[in-house]
């Protein structure tokens, strides 16, 4: 492993490359570029020591963060970019780092990218051991960032994809408000379903905020850099969909007492009985509002719901929204 910073041969600046290749930012791909090397270096620094690691960068665009990653001398760098217009600028970096970093360019939608195949040479670590030398880094497109993190939480819960190798760490950007929601502790005004989902499986840190003016074009909001480290012992070991369903029902009515939202988990004829029972089994106050419930208590509520599903199999597929739609549809 080499901790030394790698010097790249002189290259045109990212600003010059954008001009040279006429890389006009596309709104539909949420393209906002970072040109300031101090900021891209700081993002990569937030990932910890990546020298000798396998790094997957999502959405490298013209390659600002990519340069900062290469300077840290990873063993292998896989960049996954949907927009093929960036191929020449990425190939330039590939050439410049040849012999030092094994860089692969994937022109693909990250949602279709198979991390497990791409990382197949990495030895698998025990989940309870040290994290594997894998980092996912990306200035994510706003349009898919929340959806992506939910997909990855599911993969973490199933120990699949990049998490088939152990507790691979993520360093990602989100709209500042989303970053705050992911991190929001119990009783915080931003606490929501996303907060609990993230915290059930990961240690979430909002490392720093990048002002919107640092991007070209400037987005309407500031951007938060977040690290997510999968927990050695997640709060729940239950099917992801089940957890997601319980939380969705709870946070449907954020300001109402939780019992009211929880009742909707059950068909009308069982509501009274099972609503109360859920909170008794979980030992959670049914008068608390959803944002006043701790992550640990949510885990207990999910386990209690699972027990009720075992006893009353008819509730497993019950979904209040679907039922209502059916009713409305039948008029
Ligand atoms: N990393 C560059 C930077 O910091 O300057 C660009 C960041 S820009 C916010 C997001 C990048 O993600 C763009 O290059 C965009 O083309 C790419 N992108 C958008 N949707 C994507 C997807 N589904 N899969 C892979 N890349 C995507």
Automatic annotation (TrEMBL):
Q: Name one GO molecular function term.
A: mitochondrial transcription factor activity
- Binding residues for S-adenosyl-L-methionine: 32, 34, 59, 81, 109, 139
Pfam families, sorted: RrnaAD
Residue ranges annotated for the Ribosomal RNA adenine methylase transferase N-terminal domain, each copy included? 39-232
Which GO CC terms are listed, alphabetically?
A: mitochondrial matrix
EC number(s)? 2.1.1.-
Query: Which top class of enzyme applies to this chain?
Result: transferase
Q: What is this protein called?
A: rRNA adenine N(6)-methyltransferase
Say which species the protein is native to.
Agrilus planipennis (Emerald ash borer)
Question: Which gene holds the coding sequence for this protein?
Answer: LOC108744626
């Amino acid at each position: 492993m080499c901790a030394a910073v790698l010097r790249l041969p002189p290259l045109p600046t990212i600003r010059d490359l954008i001009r040279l290749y006429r890389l006009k930012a596309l709104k539909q791909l949420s393209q906002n570029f970072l040109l300031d090397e101090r900021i891209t270096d700081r993002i990569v620094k937030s990932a910890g020591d990546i020298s000798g690691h396998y790094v997957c960068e999502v959405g490298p665009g013209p390659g600002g963060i990519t340069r900062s990653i290469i300077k840290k001398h990873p063993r292998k760098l896989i960049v996954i970019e949907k927009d093929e217009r960036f191929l020449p600028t990425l190939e330039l970096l590939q050439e410049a780092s040849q012999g030092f970093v094994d860089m692969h360019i994937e022109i693909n939608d990250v949602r279709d990218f198979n991390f497990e195949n791409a990382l197949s040479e990495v030895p698998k670590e025990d989940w309870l051991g040290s994290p594997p030398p894998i980092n996912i880094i990306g200035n994510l497109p706003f349009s898919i960032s929340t959806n992506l993190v939910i997909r990855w939480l599911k993969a973490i819960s199933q120990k699949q994809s990049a998490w088939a190798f152990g507790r691979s760490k993520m360093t990602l950007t989100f709209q500042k408000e989303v970053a705050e929601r992911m991190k929001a502790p119990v009783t915080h005004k931003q606490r929501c379903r996303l907060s609990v989902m993230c915290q059930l499986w990961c240690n979430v840190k909002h490392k720093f905020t990048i002002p919107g003016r640092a991007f070209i074009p400037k987005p309407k909001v500031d951007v938060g850099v977040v690290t997510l480290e999968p927990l050695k012992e997640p709060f729940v070991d239950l099917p992801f969909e089940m957890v997601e369903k319980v939380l969705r029902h709870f946070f449907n009515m954020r300001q109402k007492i939780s019992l009211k939202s929880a009742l909707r988990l059950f068909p009308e004829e069982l509501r009274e009985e099972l609503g109360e029972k859920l909170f008794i089994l979980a030992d959670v106050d049914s008068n608390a509002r959803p944002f006043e419930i701790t992550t640990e208590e949510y885990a207990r509520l999910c386990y209690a719901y699972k027990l009720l599903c075992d006893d009353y199999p008819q509730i497993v597929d019950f979904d209040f929204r679907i039922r209502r739609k059916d009713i409305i549809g039948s008029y």
